[in-house]
Design brief:
Blueprint: E1 2-8, E2 12-19, H1 21-36, H2 51-82, E3 86-96, E4 103-111, H3 120-123, E5 128-129, H4 136-149, E6 152-155, E7 165-171, E8 181-186, H5 194-200, E9 208-214, E10 228-242, H6 248-253, H7 260-293, H8 301-323, H9 327-334, H10 338-365, H11 372-383, H12 389-395, H13 398-419, E11 423-424
Parallel strand pairs: 5-11
Antiparallel strand pairs: 1-2, 2-4, 3-4, 6-10, 7-8, 7-10, 9-10
Helix pairs in contact: 1-2, 4-7, 7-10, 7-13, 8-10, 10-13, 11-13
Length: 426
């Protein structure tokens, strides 16, 4: 066996392989013995046809089967010798296959690239961790949010007033072919267009009106942005909101708190934890970006394609769930084709894959591993969303889940390891 390896862009390799016919003979002889058992030929009993006749009759017909067997074994030998870490399925092309002659074939595959890392322990301290704190204003805002979220809602037939919770349906026959939009808001909190909110005040449940409204220039729906449009609005429901007074008694009613001050302390700690988490994510991201900027990596095409598909699916789901429009409608609004959108996302996707590969390399160098009990704990948490083990088995591959959790934990530990080198603001 002889082979030559050639590097291609996007972490791909091309391997040209040459096998002498002598190397194919053992495969050919095995195939002939297999066929001989069931071969029938006039003048001979089944399974008793002489091997010379079988070879003459079958050699050319068996050559392709023989080639496939030889390729499979040769490919594994090459991987063992080169220690290449292959991504995805290789593409194999037979270049020469003639009886009694050497065989030649080409393997094109995508591999994990070799990465030469910069001194990441020297780069990480260049990022400074900011000191975070909690202002009293933030505690008060959270208190008011809890107060509103626990308010009593009482359906009312009287006209809607500022402070009422309303559900309104609006549409425009001029644009979007009358597609209906449903909003559920508290009047007076500036979530609706001013013209719509003004029209709702004084309306009763079930009433309809027509109103002219001007959409902001930066409105997410480009068909409506900056336009004056006639809208049809219908008030589906009106609810009066009764808000309890913030007090020690109220604090005790919403949890195991001794008094209002105890609740505020809990809120303060929660906000601080969230801010510290966000700051950690910022520091980790900034360190990783700095390392990536000083690392040359030939990003594998296969990984880019997988991540691009995942990003596109996530985008489509978000458009449907958050914006409430179809993907085709979104493309019309941004004036792009799906292919143009894919191209615009490619650089971001490649950068994401690059950072993943850098984390993987640091993880290997520092021997960072997830403990089995950590993996099991996370897996058990994930599986609680299913009603039974049988249901879980229908939806997930247990081995794939454990591998995914292992990688996620190890990546997070690697990020925390890098963060430990960051400067701390005094």
């Amino acid at each position: 066996m002889k082979f030559e390896t050639k590097n291609l862009p996007e972490s791909q390799k091309e391997i040209l392989v040459h096998l002498e016919f002598e190397e194919l003979k053992p495969y050919l002889e095995t195939k002939i013995r297999e066929k001989k058992k069931n071969l029938e030929f006039k003048g001979f009993r089944k399974g008793k046809v002489p091997e010379e006749i079988i070879s003459f009759l079958l050699e050319e017909n068996l050559l392709e089967e023989v080639a496939n067997e030889a390729i499979k074994d040769t490919y594994l030998k090459i991987l063992k010798e080169t220690k290449l870490e292959v991504l995805g399925t290789p593409k194999i092309e037979i270049l020469k296959l003639v009886p009694n002659n050497p065989m030649e074939f080409k393997i094109t595959l995508c591999v994990l690239p070799e990465i030469t890392l910069p001194d990441y322990k020297e780069i990480a301290p260049q990022v400074k961790r900011r000191k975070v704190g909690v202002e009293e204003r933030e505690v008060e805002e959270t208190l008011r949010w809890i107060q509103k979220s626990r308010a009593k809602r009482i359906p009312k037939d009287e006209p809607a007033q500022i402070g009422d919770l309303v559900e309104v349906i609006w549409s425009s026959s001029e644009i979007e072919k009358g597609r209906e939009h449903t909003e559920r808001v508290i009047l007076g909190e500036s979530y609706l267009l001013p013209e719509i909110e003004k029209a709702i005040v004084g309306m009763k449940k079930g009433e309809e009106k027509e109103v002219e409204a001007v959409f902001p220039a930066n409105y997410f729906n480009k068909n409506l942005a900056g336009k004056r449009v006639k809208l049809k609005i219908k008030l589906r429901s009106v609810e009066k909101i009764e808000i309890s007074e913030i007090s020690d008694e109220w604090a005790r009613s919403i949890g195991r708190f001794e008094n209002l001050e105890d609740l505020k302390k809990n809120i303060r700690e929660g906000i601080l934890q969230e801010k510290e988490k966000i700051e950690s994510q910022r520091v980790q991201g900034e360190i990783l970006t700095k390392i990536a900027n000083k690392t040359e990596v030939d990003v594998p095409k296969t990984l880019s394609e997988i991540e691009l598909e995942r990003s596109m699916e996530e985008l489509k789901n978000n458009i449907s769930q958050i914006l409430g429009i179809s993907f085709d409608e979104y493309l019309r609004q941004i004036n792009q084709t799906e292919e143009e959108l894919r191209t615009s996302l490619l650089k971001e996707v490649q950068n994401k894959v690059k950072k993943f590969l850098i984390l993987r390399e640091i993880r290997k160098k520092e021997n960072i591993e997830a403990k089995e009990e950590e993996i099991k704990e996370e897996a058990d948490k994930f599986l609680t969303q299913f009603r039974s083990p049988e249901e879980a088995e229908k939806h997930i591959d247990p081995e794939a889940l454990l591998e995914y959790i292992r990688e996620r934990i190890e990546n997070q530990k690697t990020l925390e390891f890098l963060e430990s080198f960051a400067q701390k603001e005094l």
